[in-house]
Design a protein that fits this description.
Length: about 675
């Protein structure tokens, strides 16, 4: 009986049921009937339960059977033993498995153990071999270098310190030492506090305040008031608060002490996020109480929020902040407000004030070129647009069109040979990646694949992408093909799986097939099991509420949540929703794409009073994720059209013009 079920375990849809049968096999003593994969899953379960004894037995059997994933079980066992392991044991393990993807992760955990114990000699021996970016390990490294080698690490510490992120606890001793030595000054602490407050990281701000003994405890309480009722704090002389569950009345901050000023600036920033006009009105009332730098800073924060909300006076508020240094995001939104107003001079000014690194981003090279072209400074414009037009991305396509060419399906430059594909398939790391994928260990599978291909040249990358595509591992095939530098194969970058399914859906819903492919490539990269952090599922990443709503509108009375994972249903519902968003957006594909990602109400909210070039509409979408999403979907569709045998048009023509704000008495259903 057990041998039958062992052979047929793959028929069970649930991993839970599979684990029950594995447990039954173990209880029966019929361990010999377990396959390598079953034994490996048992090892994984033992690791999850921190059962070192059972895991050690599994590792021994997996090694005896020379199972390809046996090193992973050994890695899990090493992780469980890491607290008790000595340096020789860890060194031996790292040497034995030096070519495995997990070695650097293990080294990172070992470094954290050494750093916590302040065993700096051992730590600094291992640290040069650590390749991953890990702030916790970096903080230990800097602390160790300052303690053992007495290195001056102040500049590196400040780079980590000046962040609004909630930094790992391993950084605390480093910051303590730097502060005590005077390398981390009070001005550095105030700078990070301001950064955290205006990034909305109130808990991080409160932890920073602990480093400022002069900070008024009442102001610490008033930060919560500023966060919840900012206008009340800015316009009243006193506010009611709770301290240790007791009611208290506190005076609102003055404009004299530094902590008073920071609380007021924070309150104004919070108010501007929700109501620009109120923030402007309040700021005008208190204008005389600010110092000149603080007044400019306040206007800079109001201007930033105004630009993100497409407020018509955003540029006026930026003009009031001319005496203050604006951060990266403030300058980006100054540029976006300028392009929305088609004020090319201010756009060039905003880009000119950006750092050299920011100016080299594709977006700002393109818009600088566009602004110069609009001002008829053609030679300078073409110096920017020319090199950009050779790059294979959204801004590169737009730059190419500015120079008078239309993006067609790029020619294939290299097709891997069968011998090259076979050579890739035979590599142990590639085999491990596919075995992990087979076991639904998708994160580990991709990590193994990235490790295996890390030093590949373009020909090897394309051969690897070809092999992945043949195995229907489409997302990995796409990302691998995307990594080539000189040789390219756009058949691999833009595959056409499920053609019959998508073509039928396109015809049924009368939706552009290239748009469907462009959107699906961005949503799931054609992996039907894809699931987002917010619960979207399947090829077209449908939210459960959206799928249920669409099914009801389509008259599917037998709809159940499980249907969302069915390929045909997922594509059918997804394309139905695409058509719905297109109708709601009056046939404007860019707005419909934004609606698919962020909801129809937001897509409508982002339109201007007057018709707007679609590229400007997209560039001024307030959500960075949605902005990038729309750009990539439209660029994808541009590449897919000729591949599908559809008419070729320019990317600008595909995107079109976003009409001005339309008032309608018809209230359309909105699905977020």
């Amino acid at each position: 009986m057990f041998s039958f079920f062992t052979k047929r375990l793959d028929l069970f849809p649930s991993r839970y049921i599979r684990q029950l049968w594995l447990a039954a096999l173990l209880l029966s003593g019929n361990v010999a009937a377990m396959s390598d994969q079953d034994l490996f899953e048992h090892a994984r379960d033992a690791y999850a339960k921190r059962n070192e004894l059972a895991l050690a037995e599994d590792v021994s059997q997996l090694n005896d059977q020379q199972y390809i994933l046996a090193p992973y079980a050994a890695y899990w066992l090493m992780l469980l033993r890491l607290d008790q392991a000595d340096s020789a044991e860890v060194d031996a393990f790292i040497t034995q498995y030096a070519d495995m993807a997990f070695v650097d992760r293990l080294r990172g955990e070992w470094l954290k153990k050494l750093g916590k114990k302040q065993e700096w000699t051992l730590f600094l021996e291992h640290y040069p071999h650590f390749k991953r970016a890990d702030t916790a390990v970096e903080c230990y490294a800097l602390y160790g270098k300052s303690q053992l080698e007495h290195q001056d690490v102040a500049a590196q510490v400040k780079r980590i310190w000046l962040s609004s992120a909630d930094l790992p606890s391993s950084c605390t001793p480093l910051f303590d030492a730097m502060q005590q030595a005077g390398a981390l000054s009070n001005s550095d602490i105030w700078a990070r506090l301001r950064l955290a407050l205006h990034d909305g990281k109130l808990n991080v701000a409160k932890s920073i305040i602990a480093r400022l003994p002069s900070f008024d405890k009442n102001n610490l309480e008033l930060l919560d008031v500023a966060n919840q009722t900012p206008k009340l704090l800015l316009t009243n002389k006193t506010v009611n608060v709770k301290i240790n569950n007791k009611k208290a009345v506190l005076k609102t901050p003055s404009f004299k002490a530094k902590d008073d000023i920071e609380v007021n600036l924070y309150a104004l920033d919070v108010l501007a996020r929700s109501n620009i006009d109120d923030a402007v009105a309040v700021n005008l009332q208190i204008q005389q109480q600010w110092s000149a730098p603080d007044a400019a800073f306040a206007w800079g924060r109001i201007a930033y929020h105004a630009a993100r909300n497409h407020h018509p006076q955003a540029l006026e508020y930026y003009a009031k902040a001319h005496e203050v240094s604006l951060d990266k995001e403030q300058l980006a939104w100054m540029a976006r407000a300028a392009m929305r107003a088609q004020n090319w001079d201010v756009l060039l000014d905003a880009i000119g004030r950006m750092s050299a690194e920011q100016q080299q981003e594709g977006a700002w090279r393109y818009w600088k070129g566009r602004a110069l072209k609009e001002k008829a400074v053609l030679v300078e414009a073409n110096k920017i647009l020319g090199p950009l037009s050779t790059e294979r991305h959204y801004y590169g396509w737009l730059a190419l069109e500015e120079l008078g060419s239309v993006v067609n399906s790029p020619q294939l430059q290299y097709t891997p040979t069968e011998l090259e594909v076979t050579a890739i398939a035979s590599q142990p790391a590639i085999k491990r990646a596919f075995e992990l994928q087979k076991l639904d260990m998708r994160w580990e599978a991709k990590a193994e694949w990235v490790w295996a291909t890390r030093d590949f040249d373009d020909k090897q990358l394309l051969a690897a992408a070809e092999y992945a595509q043949r195995q229907k591992w489409y997302d990995v095939a796409i990302s691998t093909a995307d990594n080539t530098k000189q040789l390219h194969d756009f058949n691999l970058r833009y595959p056409i799986p499920y053609r019959d399914l998508f073509r039928a859906a396109a015809v049924n819903e009368n939706v552009d097939e290239a748009w469907i492919y462009g959107l699906t490539r961005q949503e799931s990269r054609f992996m039907h099991y894809a699931k987002s952090g917010v619960g979207a599922s399947g090829l077209m990443q449908l939210m459960p509420a959206t799928a249920k709503w669409a099914a009801q509108r389509m008259g599917l009375s037998d709809y159940s949540h499980e249907m969302i994972h069915d390929l045909k249903f997922n594509v059918g519902i997804g394309t139905y929703y695409m058509r719905y968003t297109l109708e709601v957006m009056n046939g404007q594909a860019v707005m419909a794409t934004a609606a698919y990602n962020a909801g129809p109400s937001r897509a409508r909210r982002w339109v201007a009073d007057e018709p707007l070039e679609a590229a400007i509409y997209v560039e001024t979408i307030p959500f960075g994720e949605t902005r990038s999403y729309v750009q990539k979907v439209m660029a994808n569709a541009q590449i897919y059209a000729p591949r599908l045998g559809l008419p070729v048009q320019s990317l600008k023509a595909r995107m079109g013009t976003v009409p001005g704000r339309i008032k309608s008495e018809v209230i359309l259903a909105d699905v977020e």
